[in-house]
Amino acid sequence: MEYLNNTLAVSFDDITNIICESTLMKYVQRGNVEKLQRGGNGRKALYAVESFPNKYKTLIYEQYPDLKERAEAKPLLSGAQRDEKAAMFYSEYTLADGRHLTQEKQEEYTANASLLNRCKQIMEESASHRGRQSKGKAKSGEFWAKVAVALEREKQSMPHSLPSNAQSLQRRFKEYLNGGYKALISRKFLNRNTAKVDDEEKESVIVELLSDRRNLDNAQVAKIYNMMAEKMSWKKITASCVAEWRKRFDLITYAGRRGETAFRNAKTMQVRRHRPMVAMQHWCADGWDCELLFQKTMTDSKGHSVTTYHNRLTVVVVLDTCINYPVGYAIGEGENPALIKAALADAVNHTAELWGQRQRAAQFQSDHYAIKALTPAYEAIADKFTPARAKNAKAKVVEPYFLRLNKDYCQMMPNWSGFGITSNKDCQPNNEAMNRTRHAFPDREGCTRQIAFIIEKEREKKIDRYMELYAMLEEDKKIYLSQEQYLLNFGENNPTTNALESSGINITIDGKKQHYDCWDMNFRKYSYIDWVIKYDRKDLSAALAVSKEGDLRFMLENKYDQPLALSERKEGDREQLQRVWDFNQQLEAHVTASLCAAQERTRRLFAENSGKIDATLSRLMLCDSDGQHKNQRNKQRLQEISTKEIEQEILKTQNTKPVDWQQVEEEEEVAIEDFY
After folding, report:
1. What sign does the CA torsion over 198, 202, 204, 208 have?
2. How many Cα atoms occupy the beta-carbon half-sphere of 343 within 13 Å?
3. Is 526 exposed, middle or buried (0-12, 13-18, 19+ CB in 10 A)?
């Protein structure tokens, strides 16, 4: 039985067990039995129970007593609707330990709230109806008894966990009215009455022991805790109990057990970045202890020759991270600032090999090794220097790159030493076999050639794609590195300082004398300074003179070597000689103009202060260019003349015409004859 539009109905299948189908049809046709719903299309035919004759109505109730009981109770809950606010509350609710309710519990508590909402609605409607009828209040015990029966029979259609006892159900309803949705959550989720660690003080002791830097295991933590529990009259715990607390407080205790670096790498949020879309936007550098062994023979303190076979070289690689192209590298026996600077120099020189001029990257990233000493070099090769956070290997893409080189190249060579010491032992090479073949290991030079082959092979595989990505770089985003900045940061220092001589700056490099001079006129003002000379052994055409304090620096040019014999003159010799001639004329004009300007200012000073300055002093100091004093002394006021104007006047009086080379050659021939 069920209710349809508040009318108790019986289905066709149920009634035909009591009355035959033909009799039923006759009753319906004559209007003696009311048909509430037609059957078909998934529906079942329903007939009003109260419309049947009394003899059939009695038989229906006798044969289906449980249906009658359900039918009497069901109208109380027939209008129950799903409470969507309750569903949202339970889906977002968080327990004290950070967990959420399971989906099953969310549905269960939503059904509880929905059914109790219906009970509240029925009670309000009943109270309003009694008020209109002026009837007395109905007994609540009977109401909750009927509701309890109805709820018990509705668990399949609407699963819930409300109690089947009327008194318990009434008590739960009152709790719901007072506490809202939260009151329906089982106290088992938050119950700590049976827990052994049941307050913040005990939890703090557990956390302190779990976060100890000695990384104690569960049994050790339980042992120490129980020693304190005995003094404090606490309940003792077991190692399995500690294991559960270790899971719960793993985030808090991880840093103490494993360290700050491990915590940042394993627990903190990581930033995800993508590679640059074009070349020269991001460079990254790091050192790699290459997993290739070489043999080295040394003499010990007793004079004995000892050969070792465990030696490894270090290579510093500079990567353009767009495709991990090794734009620069340097090989040595240990990572140090000099080796890193050599790799950076190789990187910028390689850009000159590719595109004809040294270029800088838009951004450079490295670790914090010797960062104070290397920062000027880092800033020289890139527009922005952004060091990675200390001890954060994940920030640099060069680390996994080294692993790939180790697997793709080094592992294929007979002197491969294996992976790192923390790797799986089953992946390491056979030490016994390596010991038998150690005498075949290459020496240092051979191992260097192996590493250089690996890097050059990488360049060869990626160069075409790298050039394509460079072609996509906009012209205004290309950053060039000047010769001066290159020599300042990566040039080699001459062992001794040098002062300017009449023949220029003269230094010896690799046993050969080199002569440099500067075309900047200001350089000759500092002839008293001992200069530090920086140069590049691969290109000695230029050098850089830097003062010891670093506040002065001038670019030097290797002096042009003129032939002594006129017969050996070649193309370009005369132009270079004319260049020197013109420079000297400008230098002389500058000196003369500066001296004349000083004289004019001094005369003006004496003229304006004739009453204050002794006449004898005036005669001693003030003479014109002809050595005359009186003509200048008698002038009342001197007219101001700028240094630039004086230089122009002097240049007009000098021979500024092109050099007569025939005359020069004749003069040189005479000079040579006089010399011999």
Report:
1. negative
2. 30
3. middle
CA pair distance 124, 119, nearest whole angstrom: 9
Distance CA 118, CA 112 (A): 10
Query: What are the structure tokens assigned to 482, written together?
Result: 């000047």
Where are the alpha helices (H) located in 134-249, listed in sequence order? Answer: 140-153, 166-179, 200-210, 218-232, 239-248
Q: Point out which residues pair with 384 in neighbouring strands.
A: 363
Residue corresponding to tokens 């001992």: 530
Beta bridge partners of 35: 47
Give helix 239-248 / helix 200-210 axis angle, nearest 10°. 90
Rounded Cα gap, residues 263 and 257, in angstroms: 9
Closest CA to 625 of 599, 659, 645: 599
CA distance 515 to 27: 131
Q: Rounded distance, CA 319 to CA 397, Å? A: 9
Chain centre distance of CA 661: 66
User: From CA 478, how far away is CA 359, in angstroms rounded?
Assistant: 7
What's the rounded Cα separation, in Å, for the pair 143 and 127?
13
> How would you classify the pairing of strands 512-517 and 553-558?
antiparallel
The answer to whether the Cα torsion of 52, 53, 56, 62 is positive or negative is: positive
Q: Give the residue ranges of DSSP H helices in 409-474.
A: 431-436, 444-471
Q: Please give the Cα distance from 676 to 173 (Å, whole number).
A: 130
DSSP 492: E
pLDDT at residue 324, rounded to an integer: 94
Q: Which pLDDT does position 400 carry in this prediction?
A: 87
Rounded Cα distance between 129 and 141, Å, is 19
**What distance in Å separates the CA atoms of residue 672 and residue 676, rounded to the nearest whole number?**
6
Q: Tell me how far apart the alpha carbons of residues 267 and 251 are, in angstroms, rounded to a whole number.
A: 7
Q: Which residue has the tokens 């059914």?
A: 115
- CA 554 vs CA 162, 485, 561, 580: distances in Å: 92, 11, 21, 18
Query: CA quadruple 224, 230, 232, 238: dihedral positive or negative?
Result: positive
* Sequence letter at residue 164: S
Averages of pLDDT over runs of 10 residues in the chain (676 residues) are 71 84 86 84 82 78 63 58 89 80 89 88 74 56 78 73 86 90 79 65 90 92 92 90 89 90 82 89 93 90 87 95 96 94 96 95 92 93 88 71 91 86 65 84 94 96 96 94 93 91 90 92 91 92 92 93 86 89 91 89 82 61 54 45 57 55 56 45
Q: For the chain, count helices (H), then strands (E).
A: 24, 16
Amino acid symbol at 190? L
Dihedral over Cα of 459, 461, 462, 464: its sign: positive
Beta-carbon neighbour count of residue 383 at 10 Å?
13
> In which element (H, E) is residue 4 found?
strand 2-4
Is the distance from CB of 371 to CB of 387 less than 8 angstroms? Answer: yes
Whether the CB-CB separation of 543 and 535 falls below 8 Å is answered with yes
pLDDT of residue 377: 94
**Predicted local confidence at residue 396, as pLDDT:** 67
The total number of residues shown for the chain amounts to: 676
Distance CA 484, CA 195 (A): 74
DSSP assignment of 319-366: EETTTTEEEEEEEESS--HHHHHHHHHHHHHHHHHHHSS-EEEEEEE-
Nearest C-alpha neighbor of 96 from the set 179, 182, 177, 222: 182
